[in-house]
Design brief:
426 residues; Aspartate Aminotransferase, domain 2; 2 domains; seven-stranded mixed β-sheet; four-stranded mixed β-sheet; 13 strands; binds 4'-deoxy-4'-aminopyridoxal-5'-phosphate; PyrdxlP-dep_Trfase_major; pyridoxal phosphate binding; Aminotrans_3_PPA_site; transaminase activity; Glutamate-1-semialdehyde 2,1-aminomutase
Length: 426
C-alpha cells in the first residue's frame, strides 16, 4: 500500500526543493507506508490528503486540533483580528487580556508570557529557571521530548556537547533515581523539568505516580530549585486547568503550546510569583510573538475551555474509541494494549517486538480512512462525534480482520523504524 499519485508527485518535487524531502516530526519517515505526506483540507476531525482521500484524523495535527479544525468561533476571532491588526509595531490589548485570562484560569499561574512554538516555551522556561536560581543544571526524564532546540533535540546532529552540558536525567516515576540525580546536581540544580505523564514515542505511556509528583516538588524545594511542567502536549486536553492540579502539586513554571490557539501559532509560559522577577529579567522575543490574531484565537479557546463542554465531547469520543477497540481486539483474539489517557491514546500489540503487527494495523486503518499512528500518541478532539468514532472503528475492524487473515505473514516495518528500534536496544 502506498500513498496516492498526487502525494507521490509532491514528494518527488519536495525531494529536490526541500532538504531530505521533509524534516522534523511531520516527515512520514516513521509512518506506515500508506500515510500521505501532503494534505489539502481539514475540517472538524476530518482531513483530506492531496489525492482527495478522506480521513478521521486521530493525529489532530500532533496536538493543536483541540476543538476541531477550523472551529468557527476560533476562526472568526482570528479572522476578525487579522483584518484590523495582527503583526504590528507593538502588541494589541489582547495580549494583556490573554495573560489575565490564563492567570485567572490556571491555578498556578500568576503571570504569562507568549511565544510561538512549544520549543520557544520550554527554552524560555529553562532560561528563566537559570536566571531565577543562578544555577545551571536542568533535570529531565530520560528520552523525554521538550522540543528541537540544541539543548533538548533528540537527534543532536549539528549540536555541540557544550550546548547540552548541565542537562541531566532521571527515569520517569523512579523515586530513587530522581533522588540520586538531584543529589548529583547538588548546589547547581536549577530545575526539574517533566511532562504531566510520560508520553514518549515507541514506548507505552505511563501515568505519573502521585507520590513521584509530590517527591519532585519536595526535592526541588529542599534543593532551592524550581519545578517546570511541560504541558505542551497535554495542555487543556486532559483537564480544563493544569494537569497536576488534581494532584495538588504546583509547578513554578508551566509550558503551553499546541492547543492554545487551536492551530493558530501561539504558545506560552506561565509562572509563580516567586519566578516573576527572573521572567522579567531575561531577554526573550520574536518577530511574531506579539501578533494579535493568534491571541484572539487563544482567547476564544480559553473561553471554550471555561465553558467546559469541549472536554465532555472529547472524552466521550475518546472513551467510545477505547471501548470499541478493546471489544474488537478481544473478539479477534489479540492482546492489544492501549496506554495513556483515553484522550491521548497509544496502541500496541502484545507479542509484537518488531512492531510489524501495529504497523500493519495502522497501515490498513489509514487505507480505510482512519489516520492513526503506530509510534506517537494520538489526540482525541472535541469535534469527534460518536459517528466519527464509529467510522474509525470500521477502519480498525478491517485492520483487525486483515491481521487475522494474514496471521504471521506481515510486511517488515519501514527501515528507519527498524533502525530506531535497534538504537533503542529492542
Ligand atoms: N514539549 C512537548 C512535550 C512536546 O510534545 C513538544 C512537541 N511535540 C514540544 C515541547 C515542542 O513543541 P513545538 O513542536 O511546538 O516546538
Amino acid at each position: 500500500m502506498t500513498s496516492g499519485q498526487a502525494d507521490r508527485a509532491l514528494r518527488a518535487r519536495a525531494a529536490k526543493a526541500i532538504p531530505g524531502g521533509m524534516y522534523g516530526h511531520m516527515a512520514t519517515t516513521l509512518a506506515p507506508p500508506s500515510a500521505s505526506q501532503f494534505y489539502a483540507r481539514a475540517e472538524g476531525c476530518r482531513l483530506w490528503d492531496v489525492d482527495g482521500r478522506e480521513y478521521v484524523d486521530l493525529l489532530s495535527a500532533f496536538g493543536p486540533n483541540l476543538l476541531g479544525y477550523g472551529e468557527p468561533r476560533v476562526l472568526a476571532a482570528a479572522r476578525a483580528q487579522m483584518e484590523v491588526c495582527d503583526t504590528a509595531s507593538g502588541p494589541s490589548a489582547l495580549m494583556v487580556e490573554l495573560a489575565e485570562t490564563m492567570v485567572a484560569r490556571i491555578a498556578d499561574a500568576e503571570w504569562a508570557m507568549f511565544c510561538k512554538n512549544g520549543s520557544d516555551a520550554t527554552g524560555m522556561a529553562v532560561m528563566i529557571a537559570r536566571a531565577c536560581t543562578g544555577r545551571r543544571v536542568i533535570l529531565t526524564a530520560r528520552n523525554s521530548y521538550h522540543g528541537a532546540q540544541p539543548w533538548c533535540t533528540p537527534r543532536p546532529v549539528g549540536v555541540l556537547p557544550e550546548e547540552r552540558a548541565h542537562i541531566a536525567h532521571f527515569d520517569y516515576n523512579d523515586l530513587a533515581g530522581l533522588e540520586a540525580a538531584v543529589e548529583a546536581a547538588g548546589e547547581d540544580l536549577a530545575a526539574i523539568l517533566l511532562t504531566p505523564h510520560r508520553h514518549e514515542t515507541f514506548e507505552d505511556q505511563l501515568d505519573v505516580d502521585a507520590a513521584f509528583a509530590r517527591k519532585v516538588r519536595e526535592l526541588a524545594d529542599r534543593a532551592g530549585a524550581l519545578v517546570m511542567l511541560d504541558e505542551v502536549r497535554t495542555g487543556f486536553r486532559l483537564a480544563a486547568g493544569g494537569a497536576w492540579e488534581g494532584l495538588g502539586v504546583a509547578p513554578d513554571l508551566t509550558c503551553w503550546g499546541k492547543v492554545l490557539g487551536n492551530g493558530q501559532p501561539i504558545s506560552a509560559v506561565t509562572g509563580a510569583e516567586k519566578v516573576r522577577a527572573a521572567a522579567a529579567s531575561v531577554f526573550v522575543t520574536g518577530s511574531f510573538w506579539f501578533s494579535a490574531a493568534p491571541m484572539a484565537a487563544a482567547l476564544e479557546v480559553m473561553a471554550q475551555v471555561a465553558e467546559g463542554g469541549y472536554l465532555d465531547r472529547l472524552q466521550t469520543a475518546a472513551r467510545r474509541l477505547r471501548e470499541g477497540l478493546a471489544e474488537q481486539a478481544a473478539r479477534h483474539d489479540f492482546g492489544f494494549v492501549q496506554s495513556g489517557p483515553a484522550a491521548m491514546p497509544l496502541f500496541r500489540f502484545e507479542e509484537d517486538a518488531d512492531l510489524r503487527r501495529i504497523y500493519r494495523f495502522c497501515d490498513v486503518a489509514i487505507e480505510n480512512g482512519a489516520l492513526l499512528s503506530p509510534y506517537h500518541n494520538m489526540f482525541a478532539n472535541a469535534a469527534m462525534t460518536p459517528a466519527d468514532v464509529d467510522r474509525v472503528l470500521e477502519a480498525t475492524e478491517a485492520a483487525f480482520r486483515d491481521l487475522r487473515a494474514r496471521n504471521a505473514d506481515l510486511p517488515p516495518v519501514p527501515a528507519p523504524v527498524a533502525a530506531r528500534l535497534a538504537a533503542m536496544g529492542r
